Structures are given as structure tokens and as C-alpha cells.
């Protein structure tokens, strides 16, 4: 932490509530992985204390259980702790959470993550998707300015499934049975990214104009400059929602029109696919989790430490 940031932190200590002071002291005095995880959980809760069931801020203390303070809500009359309502609720082995979060940061395989945290492979699989549940659903509410929208395609996968319908099982990798890109054999991922690096994505069920409108209309600012690859669906979307400034990059070999291009978006796609390669295929069922994981890496950058990964996982 920089000196100026530390001074600012000291100046704000006087504004802490009693609950926040207690949580902060517990975090500073914690020793060992389990205590550190618990202190982080309590500190995170103290920042915005509310009932994990109904979100009411009217509650009282109700003893302790499994190392965490329990509370009872005065509105819904239910008891809860700092994990209630979060993706990490009811997970055990908190002593291994920091090590598993480190495996998330390092992007290792499920087996290696299991070895690091000393848990079984099934637990490693379950933990990965619980630790990344909040990141999967965390997207910017709006993209502004120059907005680049483009699709990328990944061959559909049923990795891990014991029942595959409509085709014979493939070995790792494989190729589509027919040439070209379509949603029949590929997962079509719409990636939308502005020049401030705000990024969102959606897996498209088809490539129809109405589908693009359903995903683009809620997030693209009305005064945005939408840069695309020239697919007709984008023009249809722009006409229907009233975006006046739209620049289309045609697929006839043009890579840029003045300062408008798709290089920012294409760079993100390249990084995503390169980052995905060591997994040797991801089931289409779990692809949204990996998309959210990559967005978290791009968004948080050097801030993505094991402690930060746990803090992100606690966002309900």
C-alpha cells in the first residue's frame, strides 16, 4: 500500500462502527489459514452488515457456531452468519480456502487445485464453481463511448458427461462435422467491450437479430458508437433502439475505419482462448463460469490475490 493510501486509511478509522472495529481487529490478529479466512469473512460482512435471508439491517447477535458469529434477524426472525446468502455458504474446510483461492488465481487444473488444498477431486470441482459463482454473474450494467461487439465461436463440448445425444463421443479437441461456424455445433459467444475495458459476454442461442437486440439493448448506451463486423443483426439492433452513431466494420477485409476498429475486442478474444487452452476443453454447461473467471482476471488485474478472490466469491 502506498504511503498516501495508508494515511487515508488511518484518517478513516475514526468513522468505523463498533462491528467494523471488531472485525478489523480480528483480521489483524488472525494467524493460520482458517483464522485468516474467518477474519476475512467477518470483515467483509462488517463492511455492509445485513441479514443473509431478507437483507434487513435490523438484527442482533445470536451466539457462535463453527467459528463464526451468528445473528438473528428482527424482520424475518431467522438466524444467519456472515456466509448466509453467499456462494460459499455451508462449505467446509475453511483452513483450505486460501490455498484453493491461490489455485484460482494461478489458473491450475482441478486435480492440481485438489492437491494444493488437500481435498478430493469432487470437492475441487464443486469449490471451483462456488468460488466463481459471483464472478460468473458480475457484469457491467452499461458500456459507453466506443463499444466493440463481436462474436467468437468455440466447439460445443460435453466434457464429463456420461450421456451424449446426437453424436459419438470425441477425444480431446476434435472438429465440427460440417464446415463453417454456426450455433449447431459451436457455442457462439457475443463479446461486448468498450475502450474503458468494461467487458460483458453472452452465449447466443442463435444468430438472429432479435437475439442480438435482447442482449445488446440493456447494456449499450444510447449515445454509444457501436463498432461491429458488419453482421446485419447489428444494424437491425441499432435501427430498432435508436442508436444514431453506428460504425460497421465490414467483413470484406477492412480492419479499421479511421479510429474505429475491433482490435480491443479481438485482443480480448485471443487472450481468452489462449488462457482456456490448458484446460483442454470445457463443457458447454460450465462455459459461463469460465467466461466470468476471465472477466474477473481482466477486471481486477494485479489486485487478484487469494484474499481478493475469496472476497469476490462472497459477493452474493
Describe this structure in words.
The protein is of the alpha+beta class. Among the domains are: 1-85, no CATH class; 141-160 and 179-287, Nucleotidyltransferase, domain 5. It contains twelve helices and ten strands. The chain has helices spanning 3-12, 18-29, 33-47, 97-106, 110-117, 121-131, 133-137, 209-216, 232-241, 263-276, 287-300, 306-313; strands at 59-65, 68-73, 79-80, 146-155, 186-194, 199-204, 225-228, 246-248, 256-257, 260-261. The strands form three sheets. A five-stranded mixed sheet has the order 6-5-4-7-8, sandwiched between helices. It is globular. The mean pLDDT is 85.
In short:
This protein has twelve helices and ten strands.
Shape: globular
**Count of β-strands:** 10
Q: Give the end-to-end Cα distance, rounded to a whole number of Å.
A: 27 Å
Low-confidence stretches: none
Taken as a percent bin, the fraction of beta residues is 15-25%
What is the share of helical residues?
25-40%
CATH topology of the domain at 141-160 and 179-287, which one?
Answer: Nucleotidyltransferase, domain 5
Amino acid at each position: 500500500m502506498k504511503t498516501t493510501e495508508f494515511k487515508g486509511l488511518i484518517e478513516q478509522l475514526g468513522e468505523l462502527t463498533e462491528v467494523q472495529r471488531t472485525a478489523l481487529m480480528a483480521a489483524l490478529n488472525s494467524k493460520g489459514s482458517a483464522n485468516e479466512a474467518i477474519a476475512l469473512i467477518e470483515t467483509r460482512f462488517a463492511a455492509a452488515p445485513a441479514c443473509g435471508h431478507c437483507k434487513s439491517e435490523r438484527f442482533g447477535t445470536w451466539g457462535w457456531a463453527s467459528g463464526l458469529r451468528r445473528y438473528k434477524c428482527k424482520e424475518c426472525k431467522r438466524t444467519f452468519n456472515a456466509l448466509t446468502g453467499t456462494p460459499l455458504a455451508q462449505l467446509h474446510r475453511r483452513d483450505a480456502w486460501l490455498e484453493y483461492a491461490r489455485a484460482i488465481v494461478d489458473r491450475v487444473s482441478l486435480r492440481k487445485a485438489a492437491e494444493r488444498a488437500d481435498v478430493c477431486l469432487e470437492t475441487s470441482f464443486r469449490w471451483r464453481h462456488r468460488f466463481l459463482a459471483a464472478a460468473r454473474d458480475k457484469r457491467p450494467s452499461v458500456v459507453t463511448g466506443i463499444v466493440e461487439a463481436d462474436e467468437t465461436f468455440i466447439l460445443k463440448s460435453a466434457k464429463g458427461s456420461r450421456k451424449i445425444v446426437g453424436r459419438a463421443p470425441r477425444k480431446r479437441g476434435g472438429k465440427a462435422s460440417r464446415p463453417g461456424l454456426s450455433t449447431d455445433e459451436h457455442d457462439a459467444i457475443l463479446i461486448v467491450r468498450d475502450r474503458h475495458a468494461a467487458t460483458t459476454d453472452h452465449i447466443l442461442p442463435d444468430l438472429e437479430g432479435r437475439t442480438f437486440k435482447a442482449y445488446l439493448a440493456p447494456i449499450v448506451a444510447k449515445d454509444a458508437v457501436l463498432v461491429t463486423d458488419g453482421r446485419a443483426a447489428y444494424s437491425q439492433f441499432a435501427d430498432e433502439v435508436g442508436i444514431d452513431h453506428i460504425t460497421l466494420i465490414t467483413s470484406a477485409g477492412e480492419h479499421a475505419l479511421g479510429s474505429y476498429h475491433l482490435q480491443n475486442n479481438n485482443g480480448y478474444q485471443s487472450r481468452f482462448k489462449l488462457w482456456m487452452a490448458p484446460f483442454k476443453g470445457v463443457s458447454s454447461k460450465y462455459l459461463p463460469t469460465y467466461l466470468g473467471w476471465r472477466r474477473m482476471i481482466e477486471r481486477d488485474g494485479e489486485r487478484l490475490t487469494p484474499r481478493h478472490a475469496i472476497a469476490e466469491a462472497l459477493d452474493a
